Amino acid sequence: MGNIYEPLIWKNPAGSPDEFSPAIAESWSASADGKTWTFNIRQGATFHDGEPVNAAAVKASIEAAMERAAASFIWAPVQSLETPDEHTVVIHLKNAAPLDLVAASTYGAWIVSPKALEASKADEKYFEAGKDAGTGPYTIDSYAPGSKVVLKKFDKHWNKEAPVHYDIVDVAITPDSVTAQQMLVAKEVDYATNVPLENVNTIKEQGFTVNESKSPFNFLAMFNTTRAPLNDPKVRQALSYAIPYEEIIDVGGQGYGSQAHGPVPDGIYPFDESVPQYTQDLAKAKQLLAEAGHGDGLHLKLTYSSENPAEVRFVPLIKDAFARIGVDLEVKSELFNQQWKNAKSDPASAQDIFVLYYWPTYSDAGSDNMVSLFRSSEKPSFNLSYWKNAEYDLLVDEAVTLAGADRQGAQRLYSQALNMLHDQAPAAFLYDAKAISVVPEGLQAAPFNENYPFTVFFAGMKPRS
User: Fold this and answer.
1) Contact yes or no for 58/65 (Cβ under 8 A)
2) Burial 16-26 (b: 16+ CB within 10 A, else e)
3) Mean pLDDT, residues 258-267
């Protein structure tokens, strides 16, 4: 998708000189109160269907996303849009919000041709035949569902400063990672997006370059705070001290990860490295359990996703560690959709611990992870600790609004909230997963961008000189 479509602006990887790069918008600005955003639309860009890219097209695309995109909620702060001229879009917000992050989202922010928007509104299956209506450096040449996508260079792409090297990209859809590895090693393919983590070192020894990057993916274990014994923060702290974090990273992530500083992954706003972490301390864990009146032990039930190989590897480590402090942990693997459905149905009878693999919808883990996972809610969606804390709610609510006008001020509030999560421990924050890419000797690949974790940018690929 990120090769076929483009957003208004791109969010650059952590550590880049600039936070954003222009895409469909050449420049943009926000009012001092963060409630009015102006985007100056690139002149000379065209959609793949020949339609011109202009302010009216951008307005129509955003309005369609607000109305019927799966991630329409990212545009919730928008009150109205106006187009004072052919190349200017002004977006008025109900409240201040970091609209630059929204406009750079990997979900719900692609700019789509008006013709295709009308066609897809009339026929919701319009795109399923492999039609595309983007502005990106590649267009769809052919598509065989579940099997193959062939992309072709878009000769009229606006970016002449960074020309595409490969005219054709032939993508084999291969869901099995072992098969992908075999195809890569046998040189049947030039690049693979998914190889088994446990085999990466073996692949490296065969002459491939292994690149590690930050990612938006985060593992946590959410404690059911609605009933005893996990309604007691001291018990939750005890369990947090019992967890073998380093071993979980070594086994679950095969060493490709770093211990989390809460639910915000490293490299994603509002990450804060100063937020404290628990380390395994079994004596401390036993002491806290005894102080909470559970010196004789506990029985708890944990659920995890059977489709997630990292969880399959590391959950037994949690069970073994808990046994060492007198906690009998019953573990149950379920398909994620069933696990999630059960957890949402009735918190009072749900699991005690829910292992979750999570990432933000766009590069703002404050308004997503910190709100979605831990803000009070009457009906649980992803707040699967069912935690309710009025002080925390006030902090994140104020931070979400402030982020549009004062990102640093919002960061301070988010950091206070992250410290509260550490102290109250409604979840155990396990690790931030690293993104791994395996590159053959003769290929130069574009750097991984944690803001677009499901996109390999083919425009940046070329033979290694």
Assistant:
1) no
2) eeeebebbbbb
3) 98
Q: Which runs of E-coded beta strand occur in 135-196?
A: 138-144, 148-153, 168-172
Burial 111-136 (b: 16+ CB within 10 A, else e): bbbbebbeebeeeeeebeeeebbbbb
Structure-token pair, residue 236: 């939750």
pLDDT in tens, 269-300: 999 999 999 999 999 999 999 999 999 999 99
Cα(310)–Cα(18) distance, rounded to whole angstroms?
34
Average model confidence (pLDDT) across the chain:
96
103: which 2 tokens? Answer: 């406009």
Beta bridge partners of 138: 153
CA 449 to CA 431: how far, in whole Å? 19
Residue 147 phi, psi (nearest 5): -130, -50
| Residue 441: C-alpha distances to residues 178, 191, 201 (Å) | 20, 11, 15
- Look at residues 176, 204, 179, 199 and name the one whose alpha carbon lies nearest to residue 189: 179
pLDDT, tens digit, for every residue of 85-102? Answer: 999 999 999 999 999 999
Closest CA to 166 of 412, 414, 459, 425: 459
Mark 327-346 as b/e (b = at least 16 C-beta within 10 Å).
bebebebbebeebbebbbee
pTM: 0.94
The residues facing 334 across adjacent strands are 305
Backbone angles phi, psi at 171, to 5 degrees: -105, 120
